Amino acid sequence: MTIDQLYKIYRQYPSVQTDTRKLKTGDLFFALKGPNFNGNEFALAALAAGSAYAVVDDAALAGTDSRIIVVDDVLTALQQLAKHHRQQFNIPFIAITGSNGKTTTKELVYTVLSAGYKTYTTQGNLNNHIGIPLTILSVKDDAEIAVIEMGANHLREIASYCEYTLPTHGIITNCGKAHLEGFGSIEGVRKGKGELYDYLRANNGTVFVMWDYDYLQTMSKGIATVVKYGTTNTTDIQGAIQQSEPFLTVSIVKGAHIPVIQTQLVGAYNLPNVLVAVTAGRYFNVPDEKIKKAIEHYTPSNSRSQLIEKDGNKFILDAYNANPTSMRAAIENFANIQAYNKVLMLGGMAELGAESLQEHEGIINLIKQHPWKAVVLVGGDFLKLDHPFIKMANSAETAAWFKAQSFTDTYFLIKGSRSMQMEKVLSS
Questions:
Q1: Which residue ranges make up the annotated binding site for ATP?
Q2: Known binding-site residue numbers
Q3: How confident is the model over 115-145, as pLDDT tens digits?
């Protein structure tokens, strides 16, 4: 079956699903394969559950049901279908990548642009080779702007996403020490994230650039349109922090008439995320008052810079992910908070390759520079190093320790890589 033929079926049944547990009647089921599963085995069950068609790549299923569609490779077909759908639109597609802050940036940009346009965006963290095609295929005919998040942990990944996302605008939040196991080095991170700039440079695109970062200035050279944001007057949008405790308050001092934005975000490190949302809003002519209102009404979720008050204590829950760059920023921000009793509960950082022990030791040395009521280091390479702090094997053990302490009037920072599931410290 050709992509044109498959697209005609998709237009009749535009809800795409890859998980039979989430199927709804009329869905178009794509039988993807992974290391531990083979979606082809569930194709007939998907049809029995109400799926309109099942797209498979197991030739043995041909003819077993008239609603079985056999393709050479299901994942490739999904991505090609997404590209075909993308090509039906002549609207801005804004791609966002970076080592830290990309999901918060995506949510803020989406919230601001939704104040002026019918905008579609990545749901949750569907930012990989499967999630991005699914996001594109969720964009309806009434779309005026799409905001697509792109995650990556190795070279050529962002370049491959651009082949079917066809972005017109791009944002690289930053390039930090993340996924070093896949990228090899900080230079590899910049090259990998820079594939978004490479695509936009070659296709007359527009980028929104955090001008405080010299490396992004260099990386963005040669791109047709560069819109600058940051904390200096050399930018199109200039902002400053008014206060960062407990929540970040930002003033826009150039480029927009927004003297105060009182966010619900914790941490000064969220300033660039707020500024790029303002910048995108202004670029697409969203009125200043709507930009301000949209950002002020945004509440973080999914364990990203959340401030939680519980049992007489305050918790900064920033446990969705961690790498050396984000961990340092979170610790330094927490150290600056005016509170008498402060406790760190930090999980190990994943995917750092040969530099992992060194990076964990660097975090330990940073922790030693500040006074704390208690420090709990959990799992991963924290367990392999000598340090004077409390060691825990996992988040469940940490939760049991925490429950036994009877803390009151205490401020906590809870952070770690996704695999550590540090949010369980509070949910247990």
A1: 98-104
A2: 98-104
A3: 999 999 999 878 999 999 999 999 999 999 9
